[in-house]
Amino acid sequence: MRTQTMNGLAAAVAAGALLVERFPDLPAADVTVSTVFPNRLGLSFHGDLGETNFEVWRSALGISYAAVSREEEIGGPMTWLRAETALDGVTVQLTGYGRQQAPAAPLAPWEVAT
After folding, report:
1. Is pLDDT at 19 greater than 70 in this prediction?
2. 66 and 55 in contact (C-beta within 8 Å)?
3. Most buried of the four, 39, 51, 74, 98, by CB within 10 Å?
């Protein structure tokens, strides 16, 4: 297997720089560029505003809400949103992490609407 060079990551790094130029006031993300997927730029958002910041970026990049997937950790507290779009030949992958919401308490029989 041939060793990846930094030049092989140039498109993803350039896409990141373009996003900084276009959206300087949007929330900062954890940014991932990888030799495994050299044409992918990952933007991930964590903490209390993870899903909120994901939505800000989703909207700014023009990704439809229908293209968003929601996944949950089985038996765990985490949930995350994922979406992708293309930018200058690079896949921009957004991920917003959050905590699962507590399930709503079941309604008492007299509270059920008919």
Report:
1. yes
2. no
3. 98
Q: Is the dihedral of CA 95, 64, 87, 16 positive or negative?
A: negative
**In the predicted model, what is the mean pLDDT of the chain?**
88
Q: Give 44-72 pLDDT, tens digit per residue.
A: 999 889 999 999 999 999 999 999 998 88
Q: What are phi and psi of 75, to 5 degrees?
A: 70, 10
Structure tokens at 112: 């059920």
**For 35, phi and psi rounded to 5 degrees?**
-70, -20
**One-letter amino acid for residue 35 of the chain:** T
Name the residue with tokens 């030949």.
89
Confidence (pLDDT) at 72? 81
DSSP 33-59: E-SSSTTEEEEEE-STTHHHHHHHHHH
Please give the model's pTM, rounded to 2 decimal places: 0.81
Place of tokens 């970026």: 57
Tokens (6 digits) for 74: 């089985």
